[in-house]
């Protein structure tokens, strides 16, 4: 008999919500192009504008300030541009500053050459070193152009929250622009672009129960915007050309709408489940290391290391027992490299860590089976150690 699977890898991607699926199927049945003026076109346009309102609401933004993209990675490549436009004038951005724990989508630097990207260190706590940021920006040469700073709100591996308001105060003091990757935060903690003091937010649908392959760039206004990455037709007010992915955008909107309600209550339940998992792991072993447990973390993530167990081996062992979790971040090649996040935190990243990340449909029974499996794998590791 096949083992029933338990999915505990929501930071890699969240299962598609039923409401998103339905919205997508409805949109797939629509014949019109959203740019067409006839009734079919207008109906498709209405779907996109509704989704724009629903996604913008989730992050306290004006719908007019949201551009749909094909992924958060595309939004990052769009906004991390050395050239911005203010009306018809060109505004140069001299240098990009990114925290050392950013997702590769940001760390790659977008359209900046590598020699114009500076990394800002994080403290052992996994939180960006704001003093280092201030000192680095103090040395920024404005003659080269404005400073562009990109810092994530929630880290995808550790779940640690970053002090974006403090970061924003520093960036504003030096006249720079702030991009916040909010991919792992939306739907999990309240997010407001205005309260964060960000100029731009990057979002992805598939981390909150929407489909894969659609994201958004959100801004506070339209005065200063990055040079478009995808040029062509005038879709998305010229910020992102190409006929819109109607079904994906519709699914994104439906997921955002679902995630906006009961956010705090839902996430309190999720955090209690994560804490239950960690308490269970602690009870089963005395030496499991939980990264970032002393820092403020989002409630759905636990990033841990079990001495004597290589993360890849652990991941396979869990998989064989029917449990999907991650060895560090999911990366496109499927292979697990040393975590740049742990390295940046000054941890030994060579044996790696496992990441449990959960969501609204995770149950207590899922967590209890995870803990039992964890205890079994941990005991095997000890037996192997003794036998050696
Ligand atoms: N930023 C963070 C923090 C992420 O976790 C991810 C996805 O793993 C991305 C960006 C990229 O998102 P997308 O898959 O939509 O390109």
UniProtKB/TrEMBL annotation:
Residues 6-370 form the Aminotransferase class V domain. Keywords: Iron, Iron-sulfur, Metal-binding, Pyridoxal phosphate, Transferase. Its cofactor is pyridoxal 5'-phosphate. It catalyses: (sulfur carrier)-H + L-cysteine = (sulfur carrier)-SH + L-alanine. It comes from the Bacteria. Gene3D superfamilies: 1.10.260.50, Aspartate Aminotransferase, domain 1, Type I PLP-dependent aspartate aminotransferase-like (Major domain). Belongs to the class-V pyridoxal-phosphate-dependent aminotransferase family. NifS/IscS subfamily. Catalyzes the removal of elemental sulfur atoms from cysteine to produce alanine. Seems to participate in the biosynthesis of the nitrogenase metalloclusters by providing the inorganic sulfur required for the Fe-S core formation. PANTHER family: CYSTEINE DESULFURASE, CYSTEINE DESULFURYLASE FAMILY MEMBER. This is Cysteine desulfurase. It comes from Rhizobium rhizophilum.
């Amino acid at each position: 008999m096949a083992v029933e699977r338990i999915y505990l890898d929501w930071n890699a991607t969240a299962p598609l919500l039923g409401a998103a699926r339905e919205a997508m199927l409805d949109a797939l049945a629509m014949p019109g192009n959203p740019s067409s003026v006839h009734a079919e076109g207008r109906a498709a346009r209405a779907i996109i504008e509704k989704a724009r309102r629903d996604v913008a609401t989730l992050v306290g933004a004006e719908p007019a300030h949201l551009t749909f993209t094909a992924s958060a990675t595309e939004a990052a490549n769009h906004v991390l541009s050395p050239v911005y436009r203010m009306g018809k004038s060109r505004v140069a951005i001299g240098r990009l500053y990114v925290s050392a724990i950013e997702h590769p989508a940001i760390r790659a630097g977008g359209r900046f050459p590598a020699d114009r990207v500076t990394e800002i260190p994080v403290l052992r706590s996994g939180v960006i070193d704001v003093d280092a940021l201030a000192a680095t920006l103090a040395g920024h040469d404005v003659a080269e152009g404005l400073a562009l700073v990109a810092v994530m709100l929630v880290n995808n591996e550790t779940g640690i929250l970053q002090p974006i308001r403090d970061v924003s105060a520093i960036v504003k003091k030096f006249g720079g622009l702030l991009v916040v990757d909010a991919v792992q935060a939306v739907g999990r903690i309240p997010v407001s672009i205005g309260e964060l003091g960000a100029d731009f937010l990057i979002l992805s649908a598939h981390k909150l129960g929407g489909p894969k392959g659609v994201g958004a760039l959100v801004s506070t206004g339209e005065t200063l915007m990055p040079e478009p990455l995808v040029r062509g037709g005038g879709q998305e007010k010229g910020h992102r050309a190409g006929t819109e992915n109607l079904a994906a955008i519709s699914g994104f909107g439906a997921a955002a709408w679902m995630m906006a309600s009961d956010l705090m209550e839902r996430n309190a339940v999720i955090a209690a489940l994560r804490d239950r998992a960690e308490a269970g792991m602690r009870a089963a072993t005395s030496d499991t290391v939980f990264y970032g447990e002393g820092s403020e973390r989002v409630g759905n993530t636990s990033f841990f290391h079990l001495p004597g167990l290589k993360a890849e081996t652990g991941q396979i062992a869990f998989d064989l027992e029917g449990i999907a979790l991650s060895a560090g971040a999911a990366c496109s090649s499927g292979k697990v490299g040393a975590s740049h996040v742990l390295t940046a935190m000054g941890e030994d990243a060579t044996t790696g860590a496992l990441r449990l990340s959960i969501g609204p449909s995770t149950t207590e029974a899922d967590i209890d089976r995870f803990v039992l499996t964890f205890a079994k794998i941990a005991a095997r590791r000890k037996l192997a150690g003794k036998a050696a």
